[in-house]
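Annex B.
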Amino acid sequence: EALEVNREVNCMTDFSHDCEDQLQKLKKQKEKRLLYGISISIKDHINCKGHISSGGMVKFLGQVKEEGSIIVQVLKHQGAIPFVKTNIPQTMMNYGCSSPIFGQTLNLPIHQRSPGGSSGGEGALNEGGGSILGMGSDVAGSVRLPSSFCGLCGLKPNGNRI
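VDHAP protein: predicted structure tokens.
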């Protein structure tokens, strides 16, 4: 489903080829944690081990992360399976969602409209049913705007809520 949504609106930047391995490891664990087996999409700038976090900028393209961010580690510990990274505007400083690396992300029902920013790739992917849960960030509306532009429920992440 995520690939179908991506073909239509260009919302993904990377796919995790080891998500099947993650699922097999989870199946072997005796304890089923809070997010057991839930596929989750991750906003591009959030570090995932073995992947690039470009921030929409060319200068970061060759820098593969050796470690995942704390939030990704916590999600995995709770049984979630990060499977894709999603598009953001360059430097995340825009209410649209376009970067010179990955291009423009469109709003699913009306392609002439934006899915919002800066977590616009998350909004578009979730709106299309390609992911049931996405992790973004929000300082100036980066989750709240895409949620409202895409007709979704979004929660501004903070330390207590996570």
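Residues 49 and 66 are 5 Å apart (CA to CA). The mean pLDDT is 94. Further annotation is deferred to the next reporting cycle.
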